[in-house]
Amino acid sequence: MAWDFETDPEYQKLLDWADEFVRDKVEPLDLVWPHQQFTPLAGGRRDAVDPLKAEVRRQGLWATHLGPELGGQGYGQLKLALLNEILGRSQWAPIVFGCQAPDTGNAEIIAHYGTDAQKERYLRPLLEGELFSCYSMTEPHAGADPTLFTTRAVRDGDDWIINGWKFFSSNAATASFLIVMVVTDPDVSAYQGMSMFLVPTDTPGVKIVRNVGLYGERDNEGSHALIHYDNVRVPGDALLGGEGKAFVIAQTRLGGGRIHHAMRTIGLARKALDMMCERALSRQTQGSRLSDKQFVQGYIADSYAQLLQFRLMVLYTAWEIDKYNDYKKVRKDIAAVKVVMPTVLHDIAWRAMQIHGALGVTNEMPFLGMVTGAAVMGLADGPTEVHKTTVARQVLRDYQPTEGTWPTEWIPGKREAARAKFAEYLDAEVGNL
Ligand SMILES: Cc1cc2nc3c(=O)[nH]c(=O)nc-3n(C[C@H](O)[C@H](O)[C@H](O)COP(=O)(O)OP(=O)(O)OC[C@H]3O[C@@H](n4cnc5c(N)ncnc54)[C@H](O)[C@@H]3O)c2cc1C
Asked: Is the CB of 382 under 6 A from ligand 1?
């Protein structure tokens, strides 16, 4: 019987250290260098951040998303979840702890599918935190349905030539290399005819046309690139995991990426709940504190319950990943977590914003950023609707249609069967009357 909701004391000590460290030393980076966490370190930023990374390394908490067998020092997904929910409070924290998306997912697929040479060239510096990477899959005309992708790689001697367009390739502007999903064989199904390539960003023909920003970011702050791959020549050994393996690789990458986002979202939603509670206790109106108003108590209770449900769901799914060590077996629950995540963050951030009054909607408080973040979570790594479809399909696998007209739980039919089962006793009852 191992349903245990306690963290072992040794690891709890590390988590306590991480919690204090993030609040005290890392969150200030968000204010001094906002949105710059994916810009390679230099000057004052390097001087400030490198010692923090060194402290994390000394605690043994650096890059814990990969297990030792994949070149990391991970403790598994459950422990990562407990750490990530602390890191989720801060934009910079994942960088300081060496476990930021999208690099975690990219590292994971190179670890799984890369050759020794690819690991040496890309994975080692990625795990060292010395470079950034980009996952370039979505196209301007198609995102949720990868079978519609048209970016093409064609063999030319030992090389491949890539042509096409990709959209929303996050961090391409600062990444050292791109993982590009392309069609290599248009004559078979997309599931067999697409492949992944590792492409250094400075390869001739990789043209970043513009860096699209999210709402609220300034024009020059966007980090989601529209890329034209214009006759990009790469050698045969740029192929990752073999020809036709793109879908298998994508599933490995996206499963991990989705659950890691969810872990960090717990931290962000908890931050919103913390702010909600502090405000409720601090603000007076119409003769009492906000915390004494039933509406506000309702906001707090709903938020607490939503966060607790979500957290348990994420921790359980992380535990399942550790148990099965196979994302495919946990697909249903990862998709369910992905479906719930935007609503949880949206609802809690929205209520917290509401009880802060006018101040809540200003750029002096973080709530609108959280609400936009929730909207983003309903799209990045696939739209909510698609994940709901996955959940439903997986759930339905465990059910069969009824053979007759009436449902299995149709009460008259069940009653008749029950009466037949206990007929002799029912007869006796009648006889005693
Ligand atoms: C912040 C952010 C970062 C991102 N980073 C990356 C990245 O690094 N690399 C990358 O390759 N991509 C990235 N993306 C792109 C993301 O993966 C796509 O936006 C997503 O897959 C949806 O594709 P789309 O935008 O083309 O929407 P579409 O595929 O056009 O879908 C539009 C809408 O149609 C509806 N819809 C779609 N399919 C279905 C369906 N089957 N059933 C019902 N309704 C449906 C949904 O409402 C959906 O939102 C990022 C996106 C965001 C917002």
From this structure: yes
Which structural domain range is residue 222 located in? Answer: 133-240
Indicate whether 429 pLDDT > 80: no
Beta-bridge mates of residue 183: 152, 194
How many domains does the chain contain in total?
A: 3
The answer on pLDDT for 433 being more than 70 is no
Q: Measured from the CB, is residue 70 less than 6 Å from ligand 1? A: no
Considering the domain architecture, whether residues 355 and 229 belong to the same structural domain is answered as no
How far, in Å, CA of 193 to CA of 184, rounded?
A: 6
Q: Which atom of ligand 1 is nearest to the CA of 137?
A: 11
Strands (DSSP E) found in 78-237? 133-136, 152-156, 159-170, 177-183, 194-200, 206-212, 224-235
274 and 343 fall within a common domain: yes
Is residue 80 within 8 A of residue 64, CB to CB? The reply is yes
- Give the mean pLDDT of 77-95: 95
Q: What is the mean pLDDT of the chain?
A: 94
Is there a single domain that holds both residue 108 and residue 146?
Answer: no
In a domain, 431, yes or no: no
pTM higher than 0.90: yes
Residue 422: inside a domain: no
